Amino acid sequence: MTDLQCDVAIIGAGTAGLAAQRSARKLGASTLLIDPEFRGTTCAATGCMPSKLLIAAGDAAHAVRDAGAFGIAANPEVDGRAVMRRLNKVRARFVQGVKDSISDLPEAVRITARARFDGPDRLLLDDGRSLAAKSVVIATGATPALPEPFRAVSDNILTNETIFDLEDLPRSVAVLGAGPIGVELAQALGRLGVEVAVFDIGDTLAGMQDSQVGETLRELLAEELPLHLNTEAEVAPADDGVRLTWDGQSRTFEKLLLAVGRPPNFDGLDLGNAGIALDDHGAPEFDRQTLRCGTSSIFIAGDANSDRPLLHEAAHEGHIAGRNAASCPDVAEFSRMVPFALTFTRPEAAEVGIIPDPDDASFVGASAPYDDQGKARVEHRLGGLCRLYARHADGKLTGASLCAPDAGHLAHIFALAIGRGLTATDLLNMPYYHPTLEEGLKSALRTLCKETGQDQPNTREDDAVRGL
């Protein structure tokens, strides 16, 4: 006999788990939310928000240092302890906000425990109780990878889950991994006066798919940071930190920031007892539209499924999984949002929709450079490139790859346009205030109109002059 019963059991109280719980209860399902800590979401505790607090501090230092371009003499003095105190004070508010929302749930719904499968519809808790559920949602998130070669220097390793616990900024940091997390934190630390170098065995930054835009990002970041791409570094303990050796060079860093991936957190779940198919990595196979694992009553959402490890996707997936878990075996296929990834480097880098292969003739691409754009020049933020893509057959926008000042804001325009099936002509028919960064996109939009045979609106041409 089981100790607990419910319609939907959710394992993990992060963004996806909380969304799944809400959606399932809205449909009248009884739910149990299981988490060993209820420490708050990854976003609030160790992801989106603390990293942006560090980036904001780096921006402030950079703005002071760069003020000479405007005729304002200044020289910043960075107090690392003060930087980290503010970061953790504000982070605590974000985390507490999440905890407060969890506390609003009925106490009987929250179970502080670790769960593991004892069958497709049965969970065992580490407090000794068992639970029977009609459906289960796996929302256990992801954990920073710590490959075996780095365990020997683990005392000096930082991850996105530990760097924000520092009381002071380190003197030097080697960043291994040039994905979004690695390059964001590397640039922020560098702007705060930390000696930083970035290493990656690959040749791309921030996972950018468009090679031209990716190269632009590399050139701009290389002005601030040593970038060692296509490089495999060996690590070894040192008396005062970690010794890195690469390409005949060697140097000791105080800390090593490991940003080489965040694999799903399945430790202790005993997925082999769940009766679902697992892939070569031991992860559940699932349908992207329903988030259902095979034909079972088990669903997987958020970072745990490694599909789109982003907060807005985790929330959306939690909603899908919760609704389908409550309705199982009657499940629905949900339309997924337009793919949208954003890296908060300076300049920002973003990709929206489909970035086609350069040799695919069914798509047309056009470029908008930001190396002499009017508003960017006014703000002393020159540099960047945007590539826009449309279907050759009907001119509908399909993707955008952007490296430009405030690229995140620009990218939202294309997320909306692609989702609504708009064309370059449709976007050119909207007003563009002058001077704005958005104006810089018009040259690429006009090129797409021309290449796809669309009519170009009758707009003033003087705003297309470079630098105005």
From TrEMBL:
<dbReference type="Pfam" id="PF07992">
    <property type="entry name" value="Pyr_redox_2"/>
</dbReference>
<feature type="disulfide bond" description="Redox-active">
    <location>
        <begin position="43"/>
        <end position="48"/>
    </location>
</feature>
<feature type="binding site">
    <location>
        <position position="303"/>
    </location>
    <ligand>
        <name>FAD</name>
    </ligand>
</feature>
<keyword id="KW-0285">Flavoprotein</keyword>
<dbReference type="InterPro" id="IPR004099">
    <property type="entry name" value="Pyr_nucl-diS_OxRdtase_dimer"/>
</dbReference>
<feature type="binding site">
    <location>
        <position position="52"/>
    </location>
    <ligand>
        <name>FAD</name>
    </ligand>
</feature>
<dbReference type="InterPro" id="IPR023753">
    <property type="entry name" value="FAD/NAD-binding_dom"/>
</dbReference>
<feature type="binding site">
    <location>
        <begin position="177"/>
        <end position="184"/>
    </location>
    <ligand>
        <name>NAD(+)</name>
    </ligand>
</feature>
<keyword id="KW-0520">NAD</keyword>
<feature type="binding site">
    <location>
        <position position="261"/>
    </location>
    <ligand>
        <name>NAD(+)</name>
    </ligand>
</feature>
<dbReference type="InterPro" id="IPR001100">
    <property type="entry name" value="Pyr_nuc-diS_OxRdtase"/>
</dbReference>
<keyword id="KW-0274">FAD</keyword>
<feature type="domain" description="FAD/NAD(P)-binding">
    <location>
        <begin position="7"/>
        <end position="316"/>
    </location>
</feature>
<dbReference type="GO" id="GO:0003955">
    <property type="term" value="F:NAD(P)H dehydrogenase (quinone) activity"/>
</dbReference>
<dbReference type="GO" id="GO:0050660">
    <property type="term" value="F:flavin adenine dinucleotide binding"/>
</dbReference>
<dbReference type="Pfam" id="PF02852">
    <property type="entry name" value="Pyr_redox_dim"/>
</dbReference>
<dbReference type="InterPro" id="IPR036188">
    <property type="entry name" value="FAD/NAD-bd_sf"/>
</dbReference>
<dbReference type="InterPro" id="IPR006594">
    <property type="entry name" value="LisH"/>
</dbReference>
<comment type="similarity">
    <text>Belongs to the class-I pyridine nucleotide-disulfide oxidoreductase family.</text>
</comment>
<feature type="active site" description="Proton acceptor">
    <location>
        <position position="434"/>
    </location>
</feature>
<feature type="domain" description="Pyridine nucleotide-disulphide oxidoreductase dimerisation">
    <location>
        <begin position="342"/>
        <end position="444"/>
    </location>
</feature>
<protein>
    <submittedName>
        <fullName>Dihydrolipoamide dehydrogenase</fullName>
    </submittedName>
</protein>
<keyword id="KW-0547">Nucleotide-binding</keyword>
<dbReference type="InterPro" id="IPR016156">
    <property type="entry name" value="FAD/NAD-linked_Rdtase_dimer_sf"/>
</dbReference>
